[in-house]
Amino acid sequence: MATTPDSCWLTTMQMIDTHAHLTDKSLLPNIEQYLDEAKAAGVVSVLAIGTTLESSRGCVELSERFASVRASVGLHPNNCCQATAEDWAAIEALAQHPRVAALGETGLDRHWDDCPWEVQVDFFRKHLALSRTTQLPVVIHTRDCAEETLEVLREEARHEAQVGALRGVMHSFTGPQAVADGCLELGLYISFAGMVTYKNAAEIRDIAQSIPTDRILVETDSPYLTPHPFRGKRPNHPALVAHTLAQLATVRGVSPTQLAEQTTANAQRLFGAW
Prior knowledge:
Radius of gyration: 17 Å
Mean pLDDT: 94
Number of strands: 8
Shape: globular
CATH class: Alpha Beta
CATH architecture: Alpha-Beta Barrel
Number of helices: 10
Strand content: 15-25%
Largest sheet: 8 strands, parallel
Low-confidence stretches: none
CATH topology: TIM Barrel
Order of helices and strands: HEHEHEHEHEHEHEHEHH
Strand order of the largest sheet: 1-2-3-4-5-6-7-8
């Protein structure tokens, strides 16, 4: 398992946390402190992720306050069944904001019985259609339905009549390998969160080892999935992405500095400059 990152390489690295729920009540009241800690740890940029209209607006507001923050706006599959037509119209409008870098968190979820399947699929497709219109990448969630999520993505790619028409990232990826391979074939990126540092996550580490150098991203999914050696402590926050990156570097047989440079370049290629 990864040890605590050494301060000597932390000060020389630049990392991007590509998925953080900065509007969560455990982070927002002390957001300046958490962003200062992130900067000190070498995290130069953070993508703030919306899951509802309210949180999407909050992410945009944070992106206006802090140069290191950009926003992703959208409706999470567990929240979209509460959304109105006016809510979706507001997300479409927010997508035009210059500090918005992505759409989502969208996707599909069979773990929680919060939203009917057909509603989730409909909103997932709405996000993908908006991505085609705006050229913004999508941030994709899947839980207990990875194969079904991939099938929807393949259908959308066939609709576009070309592989590579989809732009986005499978966030906090946990497998299986066949789904990772399918997503890569469609042109998507794969991002890993704190679970890759957990003792029982050998399968995730194996998958992380196989991802092409130009398609791998790193994230916290804060305030959730706190990495080792802080597992179980909340809130997770952007500075701790360094621990996830250190584990990924070990798995892939490269230095943390090398992986930081590559994942930062990948994030900037997908989301644009901060």
